[in-house]
Specification:
- By secondary structure, the protein is α/β, with parallel strands linked by helices.
- The chain has helices at about 15, 25, 40, 55-60, 85, 90-100, 125-130, 150-160, 170-180, 220-230, 270-280, and strands spanning about 5, 10-15, 70-75, 80, 110-115, 115-120, 140-145, 165-170, 190-195, 205-215, 235-245, 255, 270, 285-295, 330-340.
């Protein structure tokens, strides 16, 4: 059982402290659909993870300063507090930055906390702004974000009025980033489960909107992924798929020999007609291509919060329309669809 020390205190166990902060999902009546999550929302669930950095990460979370946010903006970004709030406690703000930098690399974002900009690799707000005009209103809806990373789009869904946002993310570093942000948004109905979609135990047919953004090309069976997403959706619920795509006819999908733009975990990059056909075959209707955009360094780049290789390092420097493997450069499409009744 993992232990960490609260500042100035005795060691306490992660199971006693509920580090994932999932009490709102756990403390529900037996008849609630959310009771299906109790194995994962149990306080000791993190004790089942054998990750060498986990105790250190939990200690960092315990040391986050107590800063009071007098304003919160989840509508136009993820902004917690103001610069004035931070300047009132300059020592605490410096401490906050140092602690948050322990969770590098920050892939999704950006986040602004008390005037501190966490300048992530991805300018994720650009993708959200391309999607938002094509979404059914999220007010009062339950939203599931599969492969949510640090939960950026979950917070933006709350900004549009969602009544509940749940993210699934198996990579523990991103879970820690989410918890660091949630430390200052504790009263919001936003939660992250440290699991993959194929580990999700339910509730099924529960969510009004399901997002799968930047996941499809990482899975070995994209059709199975789409079927699992369908199972999570209510009848007539809306699906959002955002993925890498390539030019090509229906039936064509690029399968890289080894890497794509230096990434080794890319399995299938479909043409847009192929993606639409997969979606239709999995039982969705009203399938619409709402955006297709070439990824540029304006949207994805290295920063001091993600100081490693990024988009430009995966492109052919003499022919930027190609990857360094001489494959088509990254283009991303957004497709929306509706579940069948």
């Amino acid at each position: 059982m993992f232990q960490f020390c609260l500042p100035g205190g005795d060691p306490v166990t992660t199971s006693m402290q509920d580090p994932l902060r999932l009490a709102a999902l756990r403390d529900v009546p037996d008849e609630s659909p959310l009771s299906a999550l109790r194995q994962i929302t149990a306080p000791g669930y993190l004790d089942t993870f054998n990750h060498g950095d986990l105790p250190r990460w939990l200690e960092i979370l315990a040391q986050l300063p107590e800063l009071q946010a007098h304003s919160i903006d989840l509508k136009t970004g993820v902004r917690i507090g103001s610069r004035a709030d931070g300047l009132a406690h300059p020592g605490q703000l410096n401490r906050l930055e140092a602690l948050l930098r322990e969770f590098i690399p920050w892939r999704k974002g950006p986040f602004e906390l008390f005037g501190l900009l966490v300048d992530s690799e991805w300018q994720s707000g650009l993708k959200w702004e391309r999607l938002l005009p094509h979404l059914e209103p999220l007010a009062g809806q339950r939203v599931l974000d599969v492969g949510c990373g640090n939960g950026y789009h979950c917070w933006r869904a709350l900004g549009e009025g969602a009544s509940l946002a749940i993210g699934l993310e198996p990579y523990l570093l991103y879970v820690m980033q989410f918890l660091a942000i949630r430390n200052f948004l504790a009263d919001k109905p936003c939660h992250l489960l440290p699991i993959r979609l194929d580990q999700y135990p339910g509730p099924f047919h529960y969510f009004d909107t399901v997002l799968s953004m930047g996941v499809l090309y990482h899975v070995r069976s994209p059709v199975d992924h789409l079927l699992q997403l369908k199972k999570c959706l209510k009848p007539d619920g809306q699906l959002v798929i955002e993925t890498l795509v390539v030019e090509g006819d229906e039936g064509y999908s690029l399968t890289p020999e080894r890497r794509y733009a230096r990434m080794s975990n890319i399995w299938f990059v479909p043409s847009i007609p192929t993606l639409q056909r997969w979606t239709q075959r999995c039982g969705f209707r009203d399938i619409r291509l709402v955006d297709s955009t070439i990824t540029t360094a304006t949207e994805q780049r290295s920063t001091s919060w993600m100081p490693f290789q990024s988009l430009v390092d995966g492109l052919n420097p003499e022919h930027p329309e190609l990857t360094c493997e001489d494959l088509p450069a990254p283009r991303r499409a957004i497709v929306t669809a509706r579940n069948t009744a």
